[in-house]
Amino acid sequence: MLTEERQQRIIQLVQQNNIVKLHELTKLLQASESTIRRDLQDLEDQGLLKRIHGGAQKNSHLLQEADMQQKTTVHTLEKQAVARLASQQITPEDVLYLDAGSSTLALIDFLPTDQNIQVVTNSVQHAARLIDRGIQTIILGGKIKLSTQATLGYTAIEQLSHYRFTKVFLGTNGIDLAAGITTPDPEEASLKHQAIAHGEIAYILADSSKFGQVTFTHFANLADVTIITSPLELENLSEYQSKTTILEASL
User: d(Cα 244, Cα 109) in Å, to the nearest integer?
Assistant: First the structure.
């Protein structure tokens, strides 16, 4: 098993069980204790879990959010698969809203360049890559959040209020049966909420680690969106499927 695949599995187990033991991980993943210890250290350094004696536990900080550099280095295989499936939902002449975030960033490489689409985004990084690909792009104004390179605040919301979209693609930090779709930053939540209201259909792009997670600010109900994700191994998957549409990408 590749290091990335093993670490993604560790994250899934931590999210599902809150606490995982070292000896359990060595058996499940068929890896040595020294290998698992290195994995746990790497994941803790990225802020994705907390090491405890004999294992690891889930990070539960509602306001905690990794920066873009950290986000783009984890779950990369899943994000690529999700992005590929998301691109298949796009049709000629679409007007898209593309949220800031690592999952939506991955989508840009799969966007068609021969279908006369137009994209509105609140991300400086996304806008630069869209322009490099020759895609018609509008970037929202406002203050820039340095950690995510997203434009936020009144100016961005006011500008967004004048636009309408055929499809909206958003990232998230948490998907939960009770809490719905959440993100740590209230300003980002406001922008996401408005984008959903102005779109014909809204897609949440999320790798499987986001399920069962809750962060500070709710911005959508499960019924409001279609979730595009990587293969799920959830005991309560049927409960999610009863509340929202889930499209699973093949790895």
Answer: 27
pTM (two decimals) = 0.75
- The candidate with the shortest Cα–Cα distance to 80, out of 102, 63, 101, is 102
Distance (Å, rounded) from C-alpha 34 to C-alpha 118?
A: 49
**How many C-beta neighbours within 10 Å does residue 28 have?**
14
**First-to-last C-alpha distance (Å) of the chain:** 14
Q: How far is 137 from 49, CA to CA, in rounded Å?
A: 37
Q: Is 106 helix (H, G, I), strand (E, B) or coil?
A: helix
Query: What does the chain come to in residues?
Result: 251
- For 170, phi then psi, to 5°, come to -125, 150
Q: What is the dihedral of CA 77, 195, 213, 74, to 10 degrees?
A: 20
Q: Contact at 8 Å (CB) between 82 and 228?
A: yes
Q: What is the pLDDT along the chain (251 residues), one digit of tens a residue?
A: 788 788 878 887 887 787 899 999 999 999 999 999 999 998 887 667 788 888 988 765 555 565 555 555 567 899 999 999 999 999 999 999 999 999 999 999 999 999 999 999 999 999 999 999 999 999 999 999 988 889 999 999 999 999 999 999 999 999 999 889 999 888 999 999 999 999 999 999 999 989 988 888 899 999 999 999 999 988 899 999 999 999 999 98
